[in-house]
């Protein structure tokens, strides 16, 4: 029986290959090498979470009714008996309490959405801190950034579909944000809601976007992302023998394929456990949307929480100066426009363009396939930590009422504390992080030059006591010296020898200042000459070998 199955499978594969030539493609991909490191699984978690989203979403779509038509509930949930609600909310309750497995699938879908967004954000943080966005992967960074924005769009559109009080109040905030846009805001709001908020068409439109438009774009971006990964080859962490011209790793088939397949079921199982044992978004506790109740202690999901925090943080007045004006009959509400449109726009715009900003400031245009250790890029690492601290302050301000109640603090004092912290904490976090990174680089130099401390003390004939150090092995030495020694850019003189101003002189001065910001404080890697001089006493042969290795690293 087994022989017949093998023969049938081989015949089918041969038939397909003769007509499509797919065998050569499979052979090419199966020989593709992938580096092995735990952090690479973050992108896989995002991909597998999205697959779970698609599977659970098909189930939910079969029972959800995207309609804002009002009905009277008469289902099994006693607390909702006789309550007027939309068909969207009624179908959500029907799915949760009357469809076998309906509540489990809803919760799996919600937890998968949170894990999808979290995995993308952490994956992007890994890419940022290790410099994986550098040439030739700038476009792939934009693809990943677009996936992050699409994940936020997918989460928000899905979160709003049940038409409960919590999501309805969130939509009301979005309506206010849209209306704060000068001139166009009211027209956009009227088109989006099909009239005055809440209108009667928003839920069907969100449903179409949630199950068709956004997933289609995500699938396209995922396909493009994977194509670019295969095209450029995967980045790898620094280590012995790893350069920008090779890849050290495992073949896609069968090793990597087996590991990835098993990991999919691990992710699926964890999401299923979360959905089975941890309640999320219990809309029956909130009730159907009604504009009159606005409960304290309610926040949107964490990925949108920073916008809510920015709105809470922004004062309406500052020292008698208002942030809302009427100009030529139009109301300009800067206290909403600034925190909800301008600040997120600048924040996300900086993230999207960062690969080009850093490349322009550093002047480093070469291809990079070996990742940076975060300590070897102290300014970039400091910027990343500052951005994270900025986000965290806004997220905490979005929960200021919960924090104030939990710790018995004044809500007003807490808000003013965060208003000060938003200007103080990110620069402080940048400075501290950069100092720590530079300190770790100095420690690396010390280890390369003198080795690890052994705790053994030796006394020489002339009475001197010294501690014996153990030299680093080749792998560790390579790891601690294999990074680029970039220096600040020096601008040409503003005027040439004839006294004529050089074109672009101002931009050059600005670039020089930005370059100094990146590289003025730096620790240079150990050179072969420095290593030979440090190891000169007592390690003659080993020093010569290490010198040759350092020369090879510098050459690469």
What are the low-pLDDT stretches, counting only 5+ consecutive residues below 50? 538-547
End-to-end CA span: 56 Å
Proportion in helices: 55-70%
DSSP strand content? 5-15%
Mean pLDDT: 85
Rg, Cα atoms, Å: 29 Å
What does this structure look like?
This protein has 556 residues and is mainly α. Helices cover 64% and strands 6% of the residues. The protein has 20 helices and ten strands. The chain has helices spanning 2-20, 22-30, 41-61, 87-97, 102-130, 138-160, 165-179, 185-193, 202-232, 252-277, 283-286, 302-313, 334-362, 378-398, 400-407, 411-450, 474-481, 505-519, 528-535, 540-555; strands spanning 33-34, 70-72, 84-86, 250-251, 317-318, 321-322, 324-327, 330-333, 452-459, 465-470. Strands 1-4 form a two-stranded antiparallel ribbon. Helix 3 (41-61) crosses helix 10 (252-277). The longest helix has 40 residues, at 411-450. It is globular, with a radius of gyration of 29 Å. The two termini are 56 Å apart. Mean pLDDT is 85; it is low at 538-547. The chain crosses the membrane at residues 40-64, 108-129, 141-161, 206-231, 260-281, 327-356, 377-396, 416-433. Keywords: Cell membrane, Electron transport, Heme, Iron, Membrane, Metal-binding, Respiratory chain, Translocase, Transmembrane, Transmembrane helix, Transport. Residues 538-556 have a biased composition (Basic and acidic residues).
